[in-house]
Amino acid sequence: MDPELMKTVMTKHTTYKKNFKVTNHIVQIIVTGLLGLEGKLWSKSRTTLNPVFQLEKLKKMIPAIQVSCDEILSEWKNLALPKDDGSCVLDVFPYLESLTSKVVSRTLFATDYSKDKNLYVILKEMAYLANQTTRMADLPGAKYLPTETNRRAKQIMSEVRKRLTALIKERAKEISSGQNVEENFFHVLLNSELAEAHGIKNMNDLFGQVKLFYFAGYESTANLLVWTMILLGIHQDWQERARQEAFQVFGDCKPDYEGLSQLKVIPMILNEVLRLYPPVVELSRLVEEETKLGEYTIPADTLLMLPIVILHRDPEYWGEDANEFKPDRFAEGVLKATNGRPAFFPFGWGPRVCIGQNYSLMEAKLVLSNILRTFSFELSPTYTHAPYVVFTVQPQHGAPLILRRLK
């Protein structure tokens, strides 16, 4: 497992292509939009959507992220009120999923989360259904079998398509009439050459893009936040260091972009969490023609698996403490952490690197800065450590923590 070769595979995306020969029919339904495109259409889509995640656009999203964070923290405060010590035991994972879902609705789609809430719930259910069908996915005609999973998957997709198609048409009408002038994801997508080229009539392209960002936009950040809280619940020294930094930079004020860019300890912690629990444990690429990769000759129609999580824990690149939580390994940046070798790919690499990585990291820094200045936390005795892969790495049994309000 040579990280240089992995980097080459991710960089040369026209030679090593996304694997669309997926046998799991539910995965095929979920993997749409940018994830499901190749060649010129992918390039066009990527170019169209890149401006949504540029720095100036990200800065404008901060108030919406803060509002979403305030709402969740207010719920936690109310739950902690009855106790004399201001504490409560809480599975924080569903709250963090709710928080990041609200952020996606507000920042990317300018929609009301209360109307979108059930959409996130059924998309999450779809991911679990995909996981359940993995064992029988290779059976010929598996998607036509009259199983309860297949029936439910069809019901969900029918509901998702109905909701998102109505939303797309509604937003397109608002934009064309000048009612909605806010330049968010929807605005960019519906006014793009991509939409003009395919026409609003071709709802499949737009539906695929919107569905992808509803699904991927909340899940990766929620998982990053929950693993961060779990690990800081264990490592109280790092929790305190992060809290001191948050107070030092922001005091009692709401975080702004300038302050977020000054943080040092919190980004180190987030990088270490991404190393240990990357959103995606592996990537795959398909070689359609015989290709030379380093000293290896790769036959045509070979599927290459890139084991991200194994590389992230390889002692050869990270030292004998590779399985330990040590954020200070990132004190001088990512390259220094691995002695200049590329061994850190939490969001992929190259042209197809995750388009929303800066969006996710900014949101995580802001949310964590707020949580740390409001609560201290530790693992509940009921916590069971069980990383579980659905589409991303999640705590299978949730994240019950003991939260205590700071005085």
Automatic annotation (TrEMBL):
| Membrane topology value | Single-pass membrane protein
Transmembrane portions of the chain: none
Q: Show the Gene3D superfamilies listed in the entry.
A: Cytochrome P450
Where in or outside the cell it occurs: the entry states:
Membrane
Q: Which InterPro entries match?
A: Cyt_P450 (IPR001128), Cyt_P450_CS (IPR017972), Cyt_P450_E_grp-I (IPR002401), Cyt_P450_sf (IPR036396), Cytochrome_P450_Monooxygen (IPR050665)
Question: Which cofactor does the UniProt annotation name?
Answer: heme
Keywords of the record = Heme, Iron, Membrane, Metal-binding, Monooxygenase, Oxidoreductase, Transmembrane, Transmembrane helix
Query: Would I find Calcium among this entry's keywords?
Result: no
The positions annotated for binding heme are: 354
Molecular function terms in GO for this entry?
A: heme binding; iron ion binding; monooxygenase activity; oxidoreductase activity, acting on paired donors, with incorporation or reduction of molecular oxygen
Q: Does the keyword Transport apply?
A: no
A GO cellular component annotation here is: membrane
Please name the PANTHER family in this protein's record.
CYTOCHROME P450 CYP72A219-LIKE, CYTOCHROME P450 FAMILY MEMBER
**Which family does this protein fall into?**
Belongs to the cytochrome P450 family.
Q: What name goes with this protein?
A: Cytochrome
